[in-house]
Amino acid sequence: MSIPTIIPTVDLSPFFITGDDEFGRKKAKESIAKACTDYGFFKIVNHGVPLDLMKQAMDLSKTFFGYTDEVKRGCSSKPGAPLPAGYNKQPDHSPDKNEYLLMFPPESPFNILPTNPPHYRKTLEEVFKYFMKTCQILEGIINECLGLPPNFLKEYNEDRSWDFMVTLRYPPATDAENNGIIGHEDGNLITLVLQEDVGGLEVNKDGEWVPVIPAEGTLVVNLGDVIQVLSNKNFKSATHRVVRPRGRSRHSCVFFYSLQGEKWVEPLPNFTQEMGEKAKYRGFYYKDYQALRMKNKTHPPSTPEKIITIQNFDI
């Protein structure tokens, strides 16, 4: 099976125009529903994010990560945030190999963003707002694909304070290893990925790792654990990883459309009681699940089998 068939590219333009393109919307929703049912991964074009803004964000990120460690540490994270905002580097004992800059919504008091290169902070804040709007459109589409009442997910997930965005640099692979991020699923609802032409992102489909080939102007979308739990596994949280290339660094920008920490997450009655199915997961507070996932990073377990995933909440 060819890669384009496995990883569909969906045109979102029908959701941005003022006219009524019912055929275009129907086609997009069918493609998204199939991808989310199979493995939770697809690509989008005509997504509303200006292409020159995406390029500027990537270019400025490369400049920032090219600074010395001393300069980058000037915006290191401080305690108190739900996640370590600002600049961080994976610890030496981590199987993941990257450095990153994490930000919450532009108005968040937790943000620690660099003043250099010039316009970097403003660019990141603009990209953040566009990515959030695109995710809101995707959330509405997913809501329809799941057959939920109109605006259900929007009303369930109306607080945007826990959304966050990460720009990353992965150093070139070595002779010993090429891990960028080991195979995992995201813990949120929807993730957007902007990757440069280097590639390295791979999705697991039927037990095989399939490369997600970069294409100019394209964003990668994957579902996270929250959607999988709410839908009682009717829609899948995508398993993916990053493999570092040889000879050059890899840069990306990833947006995580999330939940406010106090939200309770459990399979919805629409997919249990109304379908005569048993719930496949125990419920949990989103903040507690995020804390467990963060512990995977700060205190990596001795074996992969001990990594906490959504499977720990299986019934």
TrEMBL record:
PROSITE patterns: FE2OG_OXY
KW Iron (keyword) present: yes
Keywords: Iron, Metal-binding, Oxidoreductase
Keyword Iron attached: yes
Protein's organism: Centaurea solstitialis (yellow star-thistle)
Molecular function in Gene Ontology: metal ion binding; oxidoreductase activity, acting on paired donors, with incorporation or reduction of molecular oxygen
Lineage, uppermost ranks: Eukaryota, Viridiplantae, Streptophyta, Embryophyta, Tracheophyta
Entry similarity comment: Belongs to the iron/ascorbate-dependent oxidoreductase family.
Fe2OG dioxygenase domain location: 161-259
Record's protein name: Fe2OG dioxygenase domain-containing protein
